[in-house]
Design goal:
This protein is an all-alpha fold. The protein contains ten helices and no strands. The mean pLDDT is about 85.
């Protein structure tokens, strides 16, 4: 949770600096964001390549293992699309774009902003941070009333790192393995989904 709050404070700090016109107009913020996005995607590749035991997990659980992240992705997209109908200012494309974040706040917000929709990118950042914080706080209740996979679904892409500890604490080692695989799979899906939505939808 500390990392999420830190990121939120940095985000708010950026808003404050922008309002105070602290950053000179000559600085190309869009270009900086673009290079940060490339660096972030590069880092994701390294992280995934270092994930120990992923192939072993796939061999153990076979195709059933892919069912959970697939259903989480579908549920996130449908949920965001449904909520989008209540907000006339948010188009279907943006609703799907927000759902495609799958909990990966840094990457999803940067990618959406790169398509020229900075306000939607900011919403993606905040909504996905809330998704992570909710998982960290409510994981015990989720498991008790909704089942052992519920915090994994709520965590989304963060189930392989920041929310993994709380998932392990309240479930078991098998769930931890599933949680890690889920996080890796959804992390790969985020850039693919956002690209498909904003390029072709």
């Amino acid at each position: 949770m500390a990392n999420s709050l830190k990121l939120l404070l940095i985000f708010l700090g950026g808003i404050a600096l922008g309002l105070l016109k602290f950053i000179p107009a000559s600085v190309d913020i869009d270009k900086i964001s673009e290079y940060l996005l490339y660096l972030l995607v590069f880092g994701i590749g390294i992280t995934i390549s270092r994930s120990e035991g992923i192939l072993k997990i796939v061999k153990t659980y076979h195709l059933k293992l892919f069912l959970l992240p697939l259903l989480i992705a579908i549920g996130s997209l449908l949920g965001a699309l449904l909520l989008g109908f209540f907000y006339s200012d948010i188009t279907i494309k943006h609703s799907l774009g927000l759902g495609a974040g799958l909990g990966y706040y840094s990457l999803s917000s940067l990618m959406i902003s790169q398509y020229g929709f900075k306000e939607i990118g900011a919403i993606a950042l905040i909504s996905n941070i809330i998704r992570e914080i909710s998982t960290l706080i409510l994981a015990p209740l989720m498991i008790k009333y909704l089942g052992r996979f519920s915090p994994i679904a709520s965590a989304g892409a963060t189930s392989m790192d920041t929310t993994l500890a709380v998932i392990i604490k309240y479930t078991d080692k098998e769930n931890a393995i599933i949680s890690m695989f889920n996080g890796v799979t959804l992390s790969i899906m985020v850039p693919l989904l956002i690209t498909l939505i904003y390029e072709f939808a």
